[in-house]
Amino acid sequence: MSCRKPANYRYGEHTADVLVQAFGCTLEEAFKNAAVALADLTYYSERVEPRMAKKVEVEYDDLEGLLFKWIDELLFLFDAEKFAWGRNIEVELRQGVGYRISATLHGEMYDINKHGFTGLIVKAMTFHMMEIKKVDDYWVLQYVVDI
To answer: By C-alpha distance, which of 103, 118, 131, 111 is closest to 49?
Structure first.
């Protein structure tokens, strides 16, 4: 199924922070692209080889909280474990009492010589300017990270 999303993701200007807009024909694809956008802020995800897989599961009552926990968990994965994920990410989103993401990220241990460094260090996820909406036939996830 194709849709008319403008891109997988894009960045916007924001004082001392970075605004990210991730797009997807489905919510799952938008959450995947939000993860790739986060990675590409610090290193070059296209250089990552799928040598290992990490499972990530997060849940929350609403989609905004789920997005916050998703990005926050990915920041922890990179900061604490030095795991660099590439663009091969499987995301399953379920709705019940709340929302739950079960994901598998394929990647390898971060190596600055291989994966590079863009010059940005993402410090934290914020709720500032967060927005999740459906536009025509695609989803937009907007979030701001502190750098």
So the answer is: 111
Domain residues for 43? 9-146
Taking only the tens of pLDDT, the chain with its 147 residues reads 578 888 898 777 666 788 999 999 999 999 999 999 999 999 999 999 999 999 999 999 999 999 999 999 999 999 999 999 999 999 999 999 999 999 999 999 999 999 999 988 899 888 888 999 999 999 999 999 988
Number of domains in the chain: 1
| CATH code, 115 | 3.55.10.10
- Annotated binding residue at 89? no
pTM of the full structure:
0.90
Q: How far apart are CA 47 and CA 27, in angstroms?
A: 25
147 has binding-site annotation = yes
> 17 a known binding residue?
yes
